[in-house]
Specification:
Strand content of chain A: under 5%
Mean pLDDT of chain B: 47
Strand content of chain B: 5-15%
Shape of chain B: elongated
Order of helices and strands of chain A: EEHHHHHHHHHH
Number of strands of chain A: 2
Largest sheet of chain B: 3 strands, antiparallel
Structural class of chain A: mainly alpha
Oligomer: heterodimer
Mean pLDDT of chain A: 74
Distance between the termini of chain A: 39 Å
Strand order of the largest sheet of chain B: 1-2-3
Number of helices of chain A: 10
Largest interface: A-B, 103 and 72 residues
Helix content of chain B: 40-55%
Structural class of chain B: mainly alpha
Low-confidence stretches of chain B: 1-29, 80-168, 176-194, 200-208
Helix content of chain A: 55-70%
Low-confidence stretches of chain A: 1-47, 141-149, 153-159, 161-167
Strand order of the largest sheet of chain A: 1-2
Radius of gyration of chain B: 23 Å
Number of strands of chain B: 3
Chain lengths: ~240, ~210
């Protein structure tokens, strides 16, 4: 399936933006995270040994799993944590995703050779939906301690946003922008949010998205464009 | 066709060093042909993602890899223990912060896949890498019969094959462990609080002392 737009699909440099096995971001003095691709990401070319790694992983080889989780773990985490917010919960979900992958590999249920990325993220998407349903069922009044954990503390120690305090830092700061972004993402439709999160947090290429979601690449490009526009408008009006 | 790390085969793309920082090629249009104002939004989403990844729990990828490798070897997934632990009020397995008698069981469910409960010994193997990685099986000896045995040697044949059997064994294990922990020297696991078990326990970095557990 052709992307029709050159490197629109996998993102190349875009996909090298989030290191797989090292801290993905370090704060610049300005507060803007600087992302550095790992050598492995830059070196690993397309069509490399993924299928061989998968075969070894199916047999329980720990080295193969370190390799596999190193390549994809951060991306799955970034996708998951955007919804569940808490890193510990996100870790559980990520672990569950890879354990599911492991069991399916062992049982020979991975039959989509060359489509591991879309297969993995489909599992992640389903697992995340399960977790979100579970969290919704368990939803209850959030105590201030949890709010501080999630939102960070304001100058007075209360959760940011309490009585107008905090709001993620001074207006226009990176922290403030990220805060606004999160709020805007919450207001997107599930479909719009999903495509942005899969594309930019999961760094899933459009071809893989097309396989995952069963929609033509052109449709997805248009959906992505529209979703970003809506997000942009929400940020501007915030 | 999708390649690893989200790249597509045959795009012919060669990233420039400067294109990596910030996650989006600087200036101009994005590969998707997005206009500049949407590029900014895209960059913001990616920066937010990078911040989240930077806050990823330390050692997470190692733990996940360990759990997945174990699952691939045994065919056991880790959701049975999670559900069971929650149903029994042990709490979030990953937290392992139960109180009193639950604490040990909570930790065990969190960190271990229960591979075997056989004869006179209880055998656990670290599941999520929380207790010494791949080689640190925990043996709780309830009478000394298995003392000195090689956990690795004995775990293999006792691996539980089916999910149903696994859950049954898990329930039994938790019962035994609850009894063992709460009895403080009596009951089914009374002798489990042996010096050897204490030594094994203390060799594990679980953040809870044997005295607290027992």
């Amino acid at each position: 399936m052709g992307e029709g737009r050159g490197n629109a699909a996998g993102g190349g440099a875009l996909d090298r933006a989030m290191p797989a096995d090292a801290p993905a971001a370090t704060a610049r003095p300005s507060g803007e995270p600087e992302r550095v691709a790992t050598a492995r990401e830059l070196d690993a070319g397309p069509g490399d040994d993924l299928e061989a790694v998968l075969a070894a992983a199916a047999g329980g080889d720990e080295g193969a799993w370190r390799e596999l989780v190193g390549r994809f773990g951060s991306r799955v985490y970034a996708f998951v944590v955007s919804r569940v917010r808490r890193p510990d919960v996100a870790e559980e979900v990520v672990q569950s995703v890879f354990v599911t992958v492991a069991v399916k590999l062992r049982e020979g249920q991975y039959t989509e050779r060359g489509r591991f990325e879309s297969w993995l993220f489909r599992i992640a998407m389903n697992r995340l939906r399960d977790e979100c349903r579970r969290l919704k069922r368990q939803a209850r009044a959030t105590d201030p301690g949890v709010m501080v954990e999630v939102m960070g503390a304001g100058r007075d120690g209360r959760p940011r946003g309490a009585d107008g305090e905090g709001e993620g830092g001074p207006a226009g700061s990176e922290e403030s922008m990220v805060w606004k972004l999160r709020a805007a993402m919450e207001r997107l439709t599930p479909g719009d949010r999903e495509i942005i999160e899969l594309r930019h947090r999961g760094q899933v290429g459009f071809a893989a998205l097309s396989e995952m979601l069963g929609e033509p690449v052109g449709t997805l490009l248009a959906r992505h464009h529209r979703a970003l526009k809506k997000l942009r408008a929400m940020l501007e009006s915030a | 066709m999708a390649g690893v790390n989200g790249r597509e085969h045959g795009t012919g793309e060669t990233p420039k060093a400067g294109a990596v920082a910030g996650g989006v090629p600087s200036g101009g249009q994005s590969p998707e042909g997005l206009p500049a104002e949407l590029l900014e939004t895209e960059r913001l989403v990616r920066r937010a993602a990078a911040r989240d990844v930077a806050g990823m729990p330390a050692g997470m990828l190692e733990r996940v890899a360990g759990a997945a490798a174990m699952a691939a070897r045994t065919g056991l997934d880790d959701r049975g223990p999670m559900r069971l632990a929650e149903r029994r009020g042990i709490g979030r397995p990953a937290a392992g912060r139960g109180d009193g008698g639950s604490r040990w069981a909570g930790w065990a469910v969190a960190a271990c896949g229960v591979l075997a409960v056989g004869g006179s010994m209880l055998m656990l193997r670290p599941w999520a890498g929380g207790a010494g990685g791949g080689g640190g099986e925990v043996v709780v000896d309830d009478g000394g019969a298995a003392a000195g045995g090689d956990p690795g040697d004995q775990a293999g044949p006792s691996v539980i094959a089916t999910a149903d059997a696994y859950v049954e064994e898990l329930i039994a294990t938790l019962d035994v462990m609850d009894g063992l922990v709460s009895s403080s020297g009596e009951g089914s696991g009374g002798a489990g609080a042996s010096e050897e078990s204490a030594d094994i326990w203390s060799s594990l970095d679980v953040g809870v002392s044997w005295d607290e557990v027992g």
